[in-house]
Amino acid sequence: MKVFIILSLIIKVVCPAVHMHHVFVYGTLKKGQPNHSIINNRTIGQAEFLAHARTVERYPLVIATKNNYPFLLNVPGTGQRVHGELYSVDQKMLDFLDEFEECPELYQRTKVRLEVQDGDGDVENTLKPEAFLYSRNKYEPEWLQKPTYENYDTNGDHGLQYHEDTSPE
């Protein structure tokens, strides 16, 4: 036990703790989705998968625009409990995600409570952790009439595959 305490102190002095943030991803950043490589890119910042989780509250997760982007609309109490992945990210990755998600112009980073489905480490024992989530406060009114999803997959039954617009402007 003494060795463990001494080793812990040495690690804290030699490798000072980096403040990590919890981020919940529900769309193209999830494993198996088109932009997942971003969250694994160590040159951008650090990110560690913690658990599969879902929102405690219901939100409308819709697919919209000509590029079929998944959008979580910030309308708590409507839609479905959204499934996604919980990550621990450093400040550098969080800053990059803000830029990638065009926050605050396109998406807004807000806090959400989650129910952990499975996980590694300490998070598994925390029933309802909070995490950052990228959602939309501003959207087209007709988006609220679109089908909502509890789990996004670009190759899902909806037939609305995500794609980037590569045409010149």
TrEMBL record:
**Which EC class heads this enzyme's classification?**
lyase
Q: Does the keyword Signal apply?
A: yes
Q: Where is this region: Disordered?
A: 145-169
Domain Gamma-glutamylcyclotransferase AIG2-like per the UniProt entry, residue ranges:
23-152
- Domain of life according to the entry: Eukaryota
Catalytic site: E101 (proton acceptor)
In UniProt terms, what function does this protein have?
May contribute to degradation of proteins cross-linked by transglutaminases by degrading the cross-link between a lysine and a glutamic acid residue. Catalyzes the formation of 5-oxo-L-proline from L-gamma-glutamyl-L-epsilon-lysine.
Quote the protein name from its UniProt record: Gamma-glutamylaminecyclotransferase
Query: Native species of this protein?
Result: Cyprinus carpio
